[in-house]
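Homework help board

Subject: predicted structure for assignment chain

Our instructor gave us this sequence and asked us to write out the predicted structure in token form, then describe one feature. I got the tokens but I'm not sure how to describe them. Can anyone check?
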Amino acid sequence: MLRSVQFAKIFGYLLLALSLSCTLPEAEIPQSGSPPLIREVPIEILTSNREREASPILGVSSVGTIGRAGQGVGEFRTPLGLAIDERQWIYVADAGNNRIQVIDDTGNFITEFGSRGWQTGEFDHPTDIALSFQRRYRLYVADTGNNRVQYCNFVDQIFYPLSESVDDILLDRPEGIGIGRNGEVYVVDTGNHRWIEFNVTGVPVVAHGGFGSGREQLWNPTDLGVDSHGNVYVVDTGNHLIKKYDFSGNPIDGWGGEGDQLGQLRDPKCIALDEWNYLYVTDSGNRRVQVFAPDGKSVVEFSTPGLLQPAGIAVSKDGRVFVSDAEANNIKVFRVFRKK
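My token output:
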């Protein structure tokens, strides 16, 4: 159940922090002795990123692990989607425990909400989370087992269902959520092999996809991300691809293909974008994370021996990458090093 009093205090502080345009200081994650970057390739500074003065990535190292298996606070069973708010608090879709947990960036428990069920505010195997701070402060949850998406307004803390059907087709195992640059909500309707755009009021606008391996088709897509230009990147898991669409939903690029070489993918699961629009993809079947430029060029790959089934991923503003390990039931933490 939602701990309403504690939850109210947390989001009250969050809204205050947002109104003052400041964040709390962060604690550093202690070194764990994990090995550094496994493989990397020289970075090419692309024209688009040079115009934005992006710092080239020099390498990535493992710096720690958060959580462990269990049902208690700060413990997880099949953790999946991740999201980070302005305070660097991490929201975890604790799928096996049918709840959302909130922890700080060093793993200290803050709050939790939800329990197994089908009523609003209850979940059945939640797989992804998204936070929206454009126009409205909302938390979205892909309530996969209940074939719906729920959202919570940070002010009244009451959950509401997003539209459960689009074009008279019921949602079927929605697994991924993304937020657009103007507050649009994008949902990956996995069982229907499509992704759907909702406007800021929650009304479905358009759906894209359909089962298959063609340019405009998808096969069990699981996640998506939206860059600062409005381009949408869909994780086409069944086809082992990342597919790129423009802001109007037209397919414009795709890359990957099944394999274990740099740039290839095997059962990719989730995607996250950093402030430079680099794409971080959990390459689950290869037990690694790959980083791509917005045009699909491979930048770097990284992992650690304890990374068994990378699933959800989130990138903080200070260059840390949080990866949920669905098999190890914890969250691996990495740090990206950039040229100053």
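Reply (TA_rk): Your tokens look well-formed. For the description, you could write something like this. The chain is about 5% helix and 45% strand. That's the kind of observation they're looking for.
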